[in-house]
Input
Amino acid sequence: MTNTSTHTLAQQLKAVREASYRMATLSDAKKTAVLNRFADILESESTFLLAENQKDLDAAAAANITGPLAQRLKLDTSKIQQLAQGLRDVAKFDDPVGKTLLKTLLDDGLTLEKVTVPLGVVGIIFESRPDVLPQILSLILKTGNAVVFKGGRETKFSNGAMMTLVKDKLNAEFPELPDAWACLLESREEALEMLDYPEYLDLVIPRGSNQLVQSVMARSKAPVLGHADGICHQYVHASSNLDKALEVIIDSKIQYPAACNALETVLIDDAIAPAFLPQLQLAAIDNDIILIGCEQTRAILPDAQPATEDDWRSEYGDLRLSVKIVSGLDEAIQHINTYGSHHTDGILAEDSQAQALFLAGVDAANVYVNASTRFADGFRYGFGAEVGISTSKTHARGPVGIDGLLSTKYRLLGSHHVVKDYVGQSAKPFKHTPLS
Amino acid sequence: MTNTSTHTLAQQLKAVREASYRMATLSDAKKTAVLNRFADILESESTFLLAENQKDLDAAAAANITGPLAQRLKLDTSKIQQLAQGLRDVAKFDDPVGKTLLKTLLDDGLTLEKVTVPLGVVGIIFESRPDVLPQILSLILKTGNAVVFKGGRETKFSNGAMMTLVKDKLNAEFPELPDAWACLLESREEALEMLDYPEYLDLVIPRGSNQLVQSVMARSKAPVLGHADGICHQYVHASSNLDKALEVIIDSKIQYPAACNALETVLIDDAIAPAFLPQLQLAAIDNDIILIGCEQTRAILPDAQPATEDDWRSEYGDLRLSVKIVSGLDEAIQHINTYGSHHTDGILAEDSQAQALFLAGVDAANVYVNASTRFADGFRYGFGAEVGISTSKTHARGPVGIDGLLSTKYRLLGSHHVVKDYVGQSAKPFKHTPLS
Output
């Protein structure tokens, strides 16, 4: 990395910042037209997209990447149609920008408003899957933001093709779009270096491996939205319907074991452990799940591997499942709050008081009653698309859609009001009257 | 700093984290009772508070601290009554916790809710003014959070006295309050070390000098709410009523020059500069304001000091005021977005189109039309109290009251729903029906 390249990246980010100011003033009609046109372009240029995607697939094959990972890299006509449909769906959303969240009359002729505005510049660092870029681009456009992408090497050609369509087709057809509103960085070094410029970057969203997210969080001077771990729990309360609980646990574990919202640890009330654990073992055998148990669990299931302290802090991402017997609700909540990652945790219980105490007591972005942890997802929640899942408690928490790409602004509309009239002995009182 | 002290601070913060879980489940009736009782205690223990405050005043006198700074340190019976009234006002607010922000039927028997929850643990690092601690404590209590304070040396005894009342009176009378819900750190080293424990700290709010805020922002691994600079602008548009504009400018500058929302730079359209600048100079002389002007300004006002590039980036915090002539709205907006601190910027204009373009184009937490920048304040906005003013675009922006101390949680209430039913060839569709 030379000084020249540093200079160039800073200049590029400055151009994105300036572009973001123009994006912020786009009308909703214009943003809708751009989104619909982008959908058309994806469909009419599908031959080009598929040809470029094939280069990524060839590179994957040459690197001996096969199976589900290679499958995720593949675009086809049906996927492109889905992407186009997704863009048209987002185009139909109400304009999220300029919504009045608060309106207060401070005094006669002095009105305060709080309105939604775009965040500004969002940096997205992501791995694999060529459909991520257009999906996120649709949310960026609808919210009037500018974006800097860095995709993985494995989708280099597919991402490049998408950006070619943005630059050569979309930007060319809509002069209102500033050139720098959407950029794609080429190198990992540039992506990391971007994190040193908080003046040009309002939010960074890393999507990918635990390692990627942690390296971004450690370096970034700009706020980071995301989650490093997904250590999710299901707690089987004594009041649980055991047969149904088992189905939910198996779905939480095996439906997609590598996902962040997949189950890692089951907690079981001691009163029902002797009845439940043998059923869990049978289902585990049927589904190739490897059980790792606490001492008490192993007293009932001697075949389970012994759990260490590390197991309670592990996101396996595979078919291992740790199992711990607890004395009741309090211990379950304490275990989850201590060892969990505050992502998604559920209780399996028929007792409504236990449900309520669990929902209130567990400190997680998503807390569930009698449902699979795998539901924690922006599409399933009905957000149309998601930019990521946040386990931070500031800004946005849980699956994040359009809301996470917005900020607010206070507008004060006065008639030459001055503060000196509202202080001291003869201070005028404020009215603070809420308006509509 | 020894390993022993590190160990102790981590243990102390862990206790605050655990206390935060109990605070999160306090009923609104309980929080209201605690707040009202705290107000009574402040009044009935005013002799004790004033005696301890006198120790701070004596220390300030011994250190030759006089004038407005010494004045800010002083408590008196009337200030204590105001603090008590503030606590009773906050007690009356609606419970901010547990509000439903979103409710969606995902499918029959599967309901998603987004509800407000406390942030958890908030760290507040502040300087001077003994009334900050009880004011913030009231918001912390109402929002069900736990708090770690670090006050300035100059209010050591006053802050200590407040905390003695919390621990010996309030906590003793309300067994529901866990001991560690409110803590006061003794040393600056501990306050900085706290920033290394994001697992125990959900948000840090530094209040005080630019230097304090920047050192906290640079070190903290937890999110920081606040602002380093307050470089605020007023732009005098060609359509402005010049006499009234001048009054607003003078108020913005002199009403409290050291405040973050005080004016630092005036931008003036070239068309009206010859008419306006001589008026500004007369008012400046009357109010001891020192004008620092661009070349064009000095062509009209030769007595103004010459401005350098640094002046446009300076928060003077005193009676200096920089002045720049601009070619119109676009240059004004660009100057503010480039050199400002995104805190509070105003336009003085009668032309409604210019007003609208300024409000949309300026990227600041507070954007004003014909009003003094000094209105940017939580009390003046009607928030009851403020924990700080944020220039970040994530989480909270502008003056921050109760809203900035809340997070959200998604609750999913199912009937043993599993995700496998909603994927693949025979996938059930989601309903995504908004509920009430």
Notes: Chain A has a mean pLDDT of 94. The radius of gyration of chain A is 25 Å.
